[in-house]
Amino acid sequence: MDMNTIESVVPTTDPGQWRDGDAWLAGGTVLFSYGSFAFGPQPLKRLLDLGSAGWTPVTVTDAGIELAATCTVAELYKLPGTPEAAGRSWPGVELVRPCCDSFVASFKVWNMSTVGGNLCTSLPAGPMISLCAGLDGTATILGPEGTTRTVPVAEFVTGDAQNCLAPGELLRSIQLPASALASRVAFRRLSLSNLGRSGVLLIGRLDGGTSFVLTVTAATQRPVQLRFDALPDTDALARALDEAVPTGLYHNDIHGLPAWRRDMTYRLAEEIRAELAAPEGAPGLRSSGDFWPPSDRGFPGQGLNAQQEGA
């Protein structure tokens, strides 16, 4: 935790105040861990603190769900149990808790880490990237010149710890459209170790009961999304993965070799395809993944404790 080069902390949400040597500070769980020299050859000099932004963490409307960049994992985890979300026919909301559980987080991370921070860190295993990309989320980005632009979350992350943000830009929020939330969904996640970092995380959607969307994350250095007008058969899905994910795009680190990630991507993709092809609620479907179906483990941070107790 080497942050001894910081000269000042500035409470602001104005990108116009950004200058070289600055970093945006939200929960800080990654920033404080990486240290002053983790983001380039020059040390950080100032932190632009979003702690007093006052942005509403979660807003639910008929158009969908807006997540503030400062929304914490703990705040997001509450969403499925709220009257605003529970009263709608949005199966996509069921993805929230398994994605939050995929942090396998400490109490500190659970209560401080933010949705926006997870996107901006842009690690392959970022579960908020998986959630927001899998539900066709759109990121709203504020620029230093007073500009605003939007980017699909599936395109926001461009590589391992890389994204589309220009210097000084600030991620303001993520919009999850009602059209995606209303879709039938399937979730699969695998790790090499019990309670380990995601090595493969796939989300499938069946839009309008016909169109199939598959989002591959964790296994790849950036999200990869495949779209079909109708559910493909096994061979067609495998061919599409061949074309969409070149060998060099599979991630390689201590949490999984590229060959294993590739094999598990094909395996979990077929499980998702089979699940969405079967009648909803059909019993006996094979599942290699964990954290699914979600269960009410309590709040806050109870998911990790429940899994540890059952290990």
Short overview:
By secondary structure, the chain is an alpha+beta fold.
Q: Which ranges are low-confidence, i.e. pLDDT below 50, for 5 or more consecutive residues?
A: 294-311
User: What percent strand?
Assistant: 15-25%
The radius of gyration computed from the alpha-carbon positions, rounded to a whole number of angstroms, is: 19 Å
Q: What's the helix count?
A: 12
Strand order of the largest sheet: 4-5-10-6-7
SSE ordering: EEHEEEHHHHHHEEHEEEHEEEEHHH
The overall strand count is 14
Mean of the pLDDT scores? 90
Distance between the termini: 32 Å
Structural class, from secondary structure content? alpha+beta
Shape label: globular
Largest sheet: 5 strands, antiparallel
Approximate helicity band: 25-40%
Task: Annotate the secondary structure layout.
Elements: E1 8-11, E2 22-25, H1 31-34, E3 46-49, E4 58-61, E5 64-68, H2 73-77, H3 83-86, H4 96-101, H5 107-112, H6 115-121, H7 127-134, E6 138-142, E7 148-152, H8 153-156, E8 157-159, E9 162-163, E10 170-177, H9 178-181, E11 184-190, E12 200-207, E13 211-217, E14 224-228, H10 234-244, H11 258-277, H12 302-310
Parallel strand pairs: 1-3, 2-3
Antiparallel strand pairs: 4-5, 5-10, 6-7, 6-10, 8-9, 11-12, 12-13, 13-14
Task: Explain this structure.
There is one protein chain. The chain is an alpha+beta fold. It is 28% helix and 23% strand. The protein starts with 7 loop residues before the first strand and ends with a helix. Helix 10 packs antiparallel against helix 11.
